[in-house]
Amino acid sequence: MRGIVVFGYLAALVSPLLAVKPEDFKTCSQAAFCNRGRALSARAAASKSPWISPYSINPTSLVFSPSKSSFTAAVKSSLYPEIKFELQVDILRDGVARVRMDQVDGLRKRYDEAASWALLKEPALKEEGQIVWTDQGKTGMKAVYDDVELITLIRSGREEVVLNGRGLLHMEHFRTKTRANHSQEPTPENAWFEGEEEHGFWEETFKSWTDSKPKGPESLSLDIDFPNHPHVYGIPEHAAPLSLPSTTGPDPAYSEPYRLWNLDVYEYESSSSMALYGAIPVLHAHSTKSTVAVFNALASETWVDIHHPTPDKSTATHWIAESGILDLFILPGPTPDAIFEQYARFTGPTALPAHWSLGHHQCRWNYISSDDVRTVSRRFDEEEMPLDVIWLDIEYSQEHKYFIWGQSFPDPVQMANDVAAIGRKMVVIVDPHLKRTSNYPVYAEAQERGLLVKKSDGGEFEGWCWSGSSAWVDFFNPGSWTWWTKLFSLVDDPSAGWRWKDSTDTMFIWNDMNEPSVFNGPEITMVKDNTHYGGWEHRDVHNVNGMLYHNATTNAVMTRTGSPRRPFVLSRSFFAGSQRIGAIWTGDNMGTWEHMAVGIPMTLSVGIAGLTYAGSDVGGFFGNPDVEMLVRWYQVGAFAPFFRAHAHIDTKRREPYLYDDPHKSIMRDILRLRYSLLPVWYTAFREASVRGIPVLRPQYVVFPKDSRGFALDQQYYLGASGLLVKPVTTQGATETEVYLSDDQVYYDYFDSQIYRGGSKSVTVPAPLEKVPLLIRGGSIVPTRARPRRSSPLMKKDPFTLKIALDKTGFAARGELYLDDGETYAHQQGELIWRQFIASKAEKKKVLAIRSVDLVSRAGGEGAVDGITLSAYDRENAFARDIADVTVERIVVLGLESRPKSVKLENGKELQWTFNEGSSAKGKKSGAASLLTIKTRDVYIVEDWSIAVEL
Ligand SMILES: *[C@@H]1O[C@H](CO)[C@@H](O)[C@H](O)[C@H]1NC(C)=O
Ligand SMILES: *[C@@H]1O[C@H](CO)[C@@H](O)[C@H](O)[C@H]1NC(C)=O
């Protein structure tokens, strides 16, 4: 969080203008290595004769592993024949290929640990190398050992991923700074880069900052092309459409490459390839025939150019990174779901969040006192608006010394306990900059233990942030982890030093500013020649920095009370692997319609790159949205995995209870809608936590063969529930177009209007009080309809099942996953996982509605990671705890006629009502028929069956 600063000493550092200052951030041409990389590709493109890569493999050096699932080869470059490189290609499980290249016997070591932070563990080779490496390459994968190509993934004769096909591979080797004036003696590269030369090899300046480059040039460039994939997605974080527009070629949408360099971008633009707070170097390429992906494990500043050599057919990308080895994973797919699963097997799936954290979060910079917090909590109650979490931004702390409560918070423990009385939690901010003052025990201990980030000369790095003169803990030092954990401990240990005693186990944490944000640093971050644990420069590790901090805090929160509980820590910065840790949000957005709209593709984009627990600030961080915008923004937020309202210190208060009706009631209804759908959210998170499939599924993920949906990024599906949402993000809208890919019936969630799909868009009414939400025919959606003040109060609430019959009029399916939502007991089998099935019974004209135990059906597999049937007992403690929770109502949409009877298995008649309407079958539109069954003796943990006789 950054903003218009109210503190005198910072005023000069932060712009008062209401827009990003692009000149604060580098363009490619202002980063010497990027300039060189782009010059190289321009030269190759302009070359009259085919551009030949100077890198080649020496075929006699090839060494295959005995299983033929790996090989190494010596690589040399004709530019510098004396420099040696080694290429290693490993085939891992799922046919994932890992391609590594490093300099051999160089003057120094290149940074090679980016992947290890992202990976769950070091991946093993595939036992049997079923993939044949040939130079023919008609099937499987091929390595081409000539001067042009290095690696190509070929499937069914189609080229899918081509590395170095355009010959842009270049790994700048380490060298000695010898000459006094470099430009007098051209190097081979000098001519090659066509004048883009050695500028910036050993030093470069940006505005008033000079980056000393003691290691000299070490950049890495590579082209990765997808000759048969017209769409690429991913490489978050950018405020850009989901299907990434081009940055080079004719008429590029953006003139700068997509930049990955975690930055605190003040009032970022709503459409730009500029870097933002997080970086996940994962790119998916998609076509009607297949999906493939690459994970390019780079932690240094990276720029990615994208263009489409043949529009609507192919995509070419060019990656330029400042440092690091080449360590690239090719994920073969061939479907979007397969990519998600492959990526999750290597980098880990999403951590299953605490259930309460999927509720509604209310934040503001700042709630100014403990009484303010109590009032906010009480006001939500008075207006019967559900809320799970109240947040405290930086002003709770004394002089921005995090953990230390300021004067207006005299009773933090009592405050948290008051809020917790109805199950609510608090989230309190802890930022990574530590005020440099000896009366701050956190700083003093970090300094004493030698845990702080150092300057290039070995001295303590000092920079400016909220707390004034500050220092940063080096979380690359594993020694910092145990120390950091201890600070959060709620267990007394007098020998352990300082800990946060004025806290409770219902206080969770927010890690902001962890890119890291340094107000007086270049581009508002840390200087690149700072050094970290292991001697690495900040330039080598920057993009991983935020994740390590997030991880350390999350581990600390998990173990605060001694026994592990599911943590909640929100982070602004992230990297590949952050999904294992916790939630992120899209940073300091602005209260404009454009920012509201772009928050959707931004959330989808991090989601497909593995990090599905994400959302944007409701209302926009900056500015004062009018009430129409705010209502629409609550509708967007209610359909984001992470749902938080937040506002800048200079904005007017905008808690939803402050408004008049009808807007207040509309917002109340949206909040209640979110809570009624919590079973759907939690079930979707289970799937993300096991299989890695994102909670929000863009159109192309659900319909990967329908090219009309490939660029859609304002509508999406909620897990596998069949719910399709398209929040309104334009002013004055009264209706919206929703694209329905398949020949299926869809129902309006609220009024049961029938829409029939099949490669066409339909117009759905969207007055202000209505978020366009459809249920796809064939789905059963479990909901909890009773409004409560917080989600823990819903634990024993009954369920309503919404059955949306498919176009046959006789089939639907749905799922429900539940556990205690807080501990790890689910990993011991304390959970329920049910499937609901509606199908035609053998007897004609009977719709059978059943609930079955999905854990037994699936052999235990897939319930949670690693559980087996033998570890699962249907009568487990959690199931016993909710044994009396019922299904109180079943609503069936689209039945073809009034039932003759509705009976339980034992023959008992159930009460029901039927509203005439359109049938799922046939062609009629209008409102669907509605059967409402009032059930008795139907329990959520049990198998049951209901027969609807027509
Ligand atoms: C280096 O040489 C170039 C070309 O002769 C010249 O323009 C430049 O001023 C020289 N730089 C220094 C620092 O001497
Ligand atoms: C996260 O923390 C665990 C426990 O300290 C550690 O083993 C792991 O390496 C850390 N991972 C990251 C990405 O920081």
UniProtKB/TrEMBL annotation:
Ranges of residues in domain Glycosyl hydrolase family 31 C-terminal: 692-781
Keywords attached to this entry: Endoplasmic reticulum, Glycoprotein, Glycosidase, Hydrolase, Signal
Subcellular location: Endoplasmic reticulum
Pathway noted in the entry: Glycan metabolism; N-glycan metabolism
Chief subcellular location: endoplasmic reticulum
Entry keyword annotation includes Transferase: no
Signal peptide (residue range): 1-19
GO cellular component: glucosidase II complex
Domain Glycoside hydrolase family 31 N-terminal: 87-305
Record GO biological process: carbohydrate metabolic process; N-glycan processing
Annotated ranges, domain Glycoside hydrolase family 31 TIM barrel: 351-684
A GO term for molecular function: alpha-glucosidase activity
Highest taxon of the lineage: Eukaryota
UniProt xrefs under InterPro entries: Gal_mutarotase_sf_dom, GH, Glyco_hydro_31_AS, Glyco_hydro_31_C, Glyco_hydro_31_N_dom, Glyco_hydro_31_TIM, Glyco_hydro_b
Similarity remark: Belongs to the glycosyl hydrolase 31 family.
The protein's name in its UniProt record: Glucosidase II subunit alpha
